[in-house]
Amino acid sequence: MYKKLKEIPIFFAVDDTYIPFLAVSLQSLVDNSSEKNKYEIKVLYTHVSEENMQKIKKYEKENINIEFVDLSNNLQKVQGKLYTRNYFTSTTYYRLFIPELYPQYDKVLYIDSDVTILTDIAGLYNQEIGDNLVAAIPDGAVQTIEVFQEYVEKVIGVIDYNNYFNAGILLMNLKELRKYKFQEKFLYLLEKVKYEVAQDQDYLNRLCKGRVKLLDDLWNKMPIMGISDKKPNIIHFNLGFKPWHFDDIPYQEYFWEYAKKTEFYETIKEVRKNYTEEDKERDDSSSAKLIELAKKESDCVGDDRINRR
Q1: Radius of gyration over every alpha carbon of the chain, rounded to an integer in angstroms
Q2: What structural domains does the chain harbor?
Q3: 271 contact partners, CB below 8 Å, separation of at least 6
Q4: Is the dihedral of CA 150, 155, 157, 161 positive or negative?
Q5: 189/95 Cα distance (integer angstroms)
Q6: Tens-place pLDDT, residues 83-126
């Protein structure tokens, strides 16, 4: 008897600039996939060439479907309100629209394109989430940098910085997010509050706090945390920890292992070659300014946390 495969919806968000790194992520996802599952991959975008779409579509298999979803119309009314900085673009906000865009799904995965996946992604999708809005992993930068700990507790209002999650890898409970009217609340908050430090991640943490299931960091291992004893399930090359910029990034060997299998390998090597000292100084300056901004915002908020500790 034919057995229907379990469907796993997975969302990415990109523009043309990030297509080579999406290819590496997909290569690692496909290589570690199981024939027992059907992987429905949705790539949210506003500016991707037809040529690049076709290159990404080559990763399709009998149990892996890839669809590009143009969000231009959906973002038209809010595009000017989506604050971005440094190398970020408005693509970072796309995940916030998934619950209303896909009412047919009760649960989905959202994954940033700067990841390398070392296990079957079904293991993350199958995590129990209960009535929580999301399941996620504590943010590595917040765990490491005291200024950010102050910021998320005082400005975002997360009661304990250990509960502040990274939004680059999310198990989203769309059923509960819709019941909560998440998109409506996000658009309202967008009009009232401007978060400049972590942008959409700050909005997510403010809106979801109290209804977050925290997962083991092996599902979102960030190089800023250093190398752990156990092999990660997913490596997230976030912030400035890009193996396509530097030669000494923790876990970079996994990225290059899969990059070599893609048709973008030479392109990515050129990106590495062309990353100059001036680029590094610019990015370092941006990181320093971000810490200054978090400190300034924290200093503008009263502190009543002594009653909670």
Answers
A1: 19
A2: 6-308 (3.90.550.10)
A3: 20, 244, 245
A4: negative
A5: 16
A6: 544 434 455 678 888 999 999 999 999 999 999 999 999 999 99
Q: Which of 161, 158, 136, 159 is nearest to 147 (CA)?
A: 161
Residue 101 φ/ψ, nearest 5 degrees: -70, -30
What is the value of pTM for the model shown?
0.92
Could you tell me which of 283, 81, 285, 73 has the C-alpha nearest to residue 191? Answer: 81
DSSP codes joined into one string, 223-235: GGG---SSPPSEE
Q: What are phi and psi of 54, to 5 degrees?
A: -65, -35
Beta strand 115-117 pairing with 234-236: antiparallel
Tokens 């992520």, residue located: 25
pLDDT at 5 over 90: no
- pLDDT for 290 beyond 80: yes
Which two structure tokens, joined as six digits, stand for 7?
């469907």
287's tokens: 């990181």
Torsions phi, psi for 236 (to 5 deg): -115, 105
Whether the CB-CB separation of 111 and 168 falls below 8 Å is answered with: yes
56 neighbors 296 (Cβ within 8 angstroms): no
Joined tokens for residue 271: 């990106």
Decide if 139 contacts 225 (C-beta within 8 A): no
| pLDDT at 152 exceeding the cut of 90 | yes
Under 8 Å between Cβ of 63 and 37: yes
Say how many C-beta atoms besides its own lie within 10 A of residue 6's C-beta: 13
Report the pLDDT value the prediction gives residue 88, as an integer from 0 to 100.
43
Half-sphere exposure of residue 162: CA atoms within 13 angstroms, side-chain side: 2
Q: What is the rounded average pLDDT of the residues 285-292?
A: 90
